[in-house]
Amino acid sequence: MATGFATQLAIDTELPARRGLEFDAVELRAQPSQRNNPGLGSGDAALATQAYPGTIAVGGRVRLFPTPADWLALLPWLVGPAGDDGNFAPVDQVATRYLVVDNTLEVLTYDQCAAARVEISAARQEPVTLHIDVIAHGETVGEASTFPPVIYGTGQPFLFGDATFTFAGAERPLERFHLRIDRQLRQRYVNSRLATWATPGKRVVTFEAWLPWTSETVDLHATPVPGPATLSLVQGAAWVVFRFDRWQPLPIAPTTPGRQFLGLALAGQVDRAGGAAELQVSVSGVT
Questions:
Q1: Is residue 211 scored above 90 in pLDDT?
Q2: Beta-strand pair 151-152/19-20
Q3: Residues 6+ apart with CB under 8 A from 279
Q4: What is the pTM (predicted TM-score) of this model?
Q5: Which one, of 246, 247, 234, 244, lies nearest residue 283 by Cα?
């Protein structure tokens, strides 16, 4: 008996998908719903006389450890298109991709996939992890061994040790971080059981940083002033830089866990300070 498990993932703007990505977990599926007739007209009002199909929600979550080349390929989908200055920045339009998954027993293709929520995080001794909450508009089942030939990016994933964080005019020591981009997408069902489109709501970008409680961070506790912040990932000649136009952290008092090191947690929303986008991402040294 053959057992199915996800072995390959491809993400691309068109089919056949050619961009292969190494992944940690893929949890995509089509989830149909069912509605029941409340039993009107039957002898037992508590007995449902008929069940009929409801909507079909397609999507799920993907977890990756992207390489620098993977970031370059994914950022137009995850964040937004590159501007004239080469930086990727959020826009109101929703970009979509095709996702193709090989689970050894069949090949599943998901079309018009939108990145509803993107989370980027890392902690000590961990790779930089990318979580993508995907909303798709359809699932197609293909036969096994029909997964297209793909090309994988070269290089290794970024590690937490590759990260540098600057805020309030100085580089700050960092223990872990969590960046979230939430587009608050709302699915629309128009004459179809499948969603016909995803409408963006108010985009919310938040950033959380956990810092050691030291003389280098004590100034951030009492009166943290909103301002620009930068998270840089550097691996040799390749780097990815996340720039926050105006980060408004709310300080959380250092915990006292006994005879252990103290930490300072800063978490807040990223807003626009002027006409520029609240988040801008630049990539260099990657082809």
A1: no
A2: parallel
A3: 79, 89, 90, 181, 205, 242, 243, 244, 245, 270
A4: 0.88
A5: 234
